[in-house]
Design goal:
5-stranded mixed β-sheet; about 280 residues; 9 helices; about 15% strand; single chain
Length: about 280
C-alpha cells in the first residue's frame, strides 16, 4: 500500500490526476452512498455531477492531484485493497495510444511519429502531448485514452513527448457511411400516364412529403411503418402512372435514414405491391 500511495503522491505532485485500481485493473465501484449514481455523480459522462463523496468511487472522474485527498482515510482504505495506480491522461494534458499487441505496435511504428513509449504486458503505450476524445477499438488492437478515460501507470517510459499528431486525432473520426445504390424498382405506368387522373400533381408531391415524414418520425416499429407507408402510397398512386422511380427513391432514402437496408426496402415494396395485386 505504501508503495502505491507514494507513487500516487509523486504523480500528483507532477500534476498527474491519479486514482487507485483494484483487482482486475479496474477502478473502485460506487460506495453505498453513491450506488447507482444516487449522489448525482455520473462517471461515464463528461460531468461527474455534484457528488462530494470522499472515496475514490467515480472512475476517471475521481482522479485527483490533491495530496490531502489522496492520503485521506477514505482513500487509504482503497489503497490498502488496490493493486495498481491509474491516471487520467486528459486531466494531465496527455493522450495515450494503447497498443494491445505486437501487430498494433508494428502498425504504430510505421504510421505514427515517435514519442514517449511505455511497455505494457502485451504491447506499448505511446504518449503524446495534447488531448482528444477516447474512443476504443479505433483499429485492431488500438484504443485511445485521453479525456474521460484512465490509463494504468506503468512507469515514466522512454523518449521525449511529441505533440499529438493529426494521424492520431483522425483515428477518432468515423468514416462517412456510403449507402449502397438504391435498387431500381419498376412501377407500372399506364400509356399516356404521368398525371394523376384523380388529383393534381401537387397532390402527389404532398402525399410523398407526408410519407417521408411518417417514416422519419417513426420511433419504433420502423419495419412495420415503412411497409404501411409503402402500401398507402401504392394504393393511391401505384396504378395511375404518376409515380416514378425518383419518387420511390425518395421513400427508400427516408427508410434507409431510419436504418433500413436497400434489401429491406425492396422487399417491403414488393410485398406491398403483391398485397395490392400489382
Amino acid at each position: 500500500m505504501n508503495d502505491l500511495l507514494n507513487t500516487a503522491l509523486g504523480l500528483a505532485k507532477a500534476s498527474m490526476p491519479v486514482l487507485p485500481l483494484r483487482e482486475g485493473k479496474v477502478p473502485f465501484g460506487n460506495c453505498p452512498t453513491c450506488a447507482n449514481n444516487a449522489c448525482g455523480g455520473r462517471p461515464n459522462m463528461k460531468t461527474p455531477g455534484p457528488c462530494q463523496c470522499p472515496a475514490p468511487c467515480h472512475a476517471w472522474a475521481a482522479a485527483n492531484t490533491d495530496p490531502d485527498i489522496i492520503s485521506s482515510l477514505a482513500w487509504v482504505r482503497a489503497w490498502r485493497r488496490a493493486v495498481g495506480v491509474a491516471y487520467h491522461p486528459g486531466g494531465a494534458g496527455l493522450t495515450v495510444v494503447d497498443l494491445d499487441d505486437t501487430a498494433a505496435v508494428d502498425w504504430a511504428r510505421r504510421m505514427l511519429p515517435a514519442t514517449r513509449t511505455v511497455p505494457t504486458t502485451r504491447g506499448e503505450h505511446w504518449i503524446y502531448q495534447g488531448t482528444m476524445p477516447s474512443p476504443n477499438s479505433v483499429r485492431p488492437g488500438v484504443d485511445i485514452k485521453s479525456t474521460m478515460a484512465y490509463a494504468r501507470w506503468l512507469g515514466p517510459g522512454t523518449g521525449p513527448l511529441a505533440a499529438l499528431p493529426d494521424a492520431v486525432r483522425a483515428l477518432a473520426v468515423k468514416p462517412p457511411v456510403h449507402r449502397p445504390t438504391l435498387p431500381v424498382v419498376g412501377v407500372s405506368v399506364r400509356p399516356g400516364g404521368g398525371t394523376c387522373p384523380h388529383r393534381t400533381p401537387a397532390y402527389l408531391r404532398r402525399g410523398l412529403e407526408m410519407a417521408e415524414q411518417r417514416i422519419s418520425d417513426a420511433s419504433s416499429g420502423v419495419h412495420a411503418t415503412v411497409y404501411a407507408t409503402f402500401l398507402a402510397v401504392l394504393s393511391r398512386h401505384g396504378r395511375c402512372g404518376c409515380l416514378t422511380d425518383a419518387d420511390v427513391a425518395r421513400l427508400f432514402t427516408a427508410a434507409q435514414g431510419k436504418g433500413e437496408t436497400p434489401r429491406h426496402c425492396a422487399d417491403a415494396w414488393a410485398n406491398a405491391r403483391t398485397a395490392l395485386g400489382m
